[in-house]
Amino acid sequence: MANQEDIFKKVISHAKEYGYIFQSSEIYDGLSAVYDYGQNGVELKKNIREYWWQAMVQLNDNIVGIDAAIFMHPTTWKASGHVDAFNDPLIDNKDSKKRYRADVLVEDHVAKIEAKIEKEVKKAAKRFGDSFDKQQFLETNPRVLDYQAKADGILKRLGKSLENEDLADVKALIEELGIVCPVSGSKNWTDVKQFNLMFGTKLGATADSAMDLYLRPETAQGIFVNFLNVQKTGRMKIPFGIAQTGKAFRNEIVARQFIFRMREFEQMEMQYFIKPGTQKEWYDTWKEKRLKWHLSLGLGQDNYRFHDHEKLAHYADAAADIEFRFPFGFKELEGIHSRTDFDLGSHEKYSNKKLQYFDPEENKSYVPYVLETSIGLDRMFLAVFSSALQEEELENNTTRTVLKIPAVLAPTKAAILPLLKRDGLPEVAHKIVEELKWEFNVVYDEKDAVGRRYRRQDAVGTPFCITVDHQTLEDETVTIRHRDTMEQQRVKVDAVKDIISKEVDMRYWLQRI
Ligand code: ATP
């Protein structure tokens, strides 16, 4: 089996080859950690966004959407804590001149220890066969316990030093663990420094009147500052939510993981305004709801896990990530954060405006608490795309590359293929395209043998191929081929629309939530 790195490389090259993702300004050798979506990528991204929006806004009568500007008054970021605390600890290697996130270097070291545990488990599973009890093994094997204690100890110390802003200790930890630069192999490190992740820019024409602004590092603040506008004009009653999708910008220190960590990316966030004291209940509810949304897409239950945060951000009283098994291991895909009244309370202070809700049941006003769900659209794209890409061995000893994107998200739903370029077959195929294009995205393809056209559509992820042949002229039937099973059925032309609609309609997928 190919190793993780090879699989990830394959994902990146496939995304480019089939018009999903290009490097930004590639003709000028690109811009690091910035990407463009191509003709198929834009459709997949739009469908994921829509799938989220319908689940959050359309299907919840107490959640509404907004679209706030990327530029916000600079005091917003003072109030939110981003000016003072939105930092990552960075460290440089003096020999390679490469820059790293100090916490990530330590975490990668811990991941290596955890990999050793995995190895022990695999070895033991082989040795004990069916009688192997993984849980018992993890809890009793001395070597595993030793590794686990080491890993836990390192993470605990890292968490504590970061919380206390003790950067000297973070460096000491890197030195004690003997961590070397992956490029130069040396331990010649600089001190650890804090680095603010916000991009600055200026508003205004002349140098002296210009105002310093930031590109928003998260969409959430656009929701907080509009909380009362929406609550009043929408006559919203607590609990209620405000949802938003849009661009966010972070000057990430290391950006080497394709669209997993970008400097310009898109978030899909929802802030749920609740009564103080009910946050635990809503935290559990939204964790469960969001996981169900993910599972409804059928990417495989084993590919998800929760990770509860030990070190909490300055605004949170509880936080968990939904992690996904990316080609480079389990990593954060979505965050569920119990943000207390930190944001609204802080905006009250900085703006001198009341941001309170009058609760008719309690007959009093209060600053609501907030439960947030925050997912990166690009990361979700990577989750869908990387798990969909598969190499299949076929019966006749050949292989096919197939992109098993959930049909509801696929950029193109059907390809219409005349078997031959003559005998009136293209005309009939064009007629089918004309009818279906009012329902969903379809393409017409007449180039090459039909087998090759099937492979092309498999690789780009089109769930259905409709083939027009001579029999079509006689009895108005076509063959419909299913991407995942490669099964072919002969059906009436009139039935095609319904067959495809059933499989691609968001309603059928969302009903699983
Ligand atoms: P990480 O620990 O990976 O840097 P984070 O904890 O800073 O992420 P949040 O601030 O909670 O992330 O942002 C919410 C979501 O936004 C994340 O779960 C992720 O899906 C997405 N996201 C954050 N940073 C990036 C980025 N640089 N590129 C792409 N998506 C991102």
Automatic annotation (TrEMBL):
It is an enzyme of class 6 (ligase). Signal peptide: none annotated. The keyword Translocase does not apply. CDD domains: GlyRS-like_core, GlyRS_anticodon. Belongs to the class-II aminoacyl-tRNA synthetase family. Catalyzes the attachment of glycine to tRNA(Gly). This is Glycine--tRNA ligase.
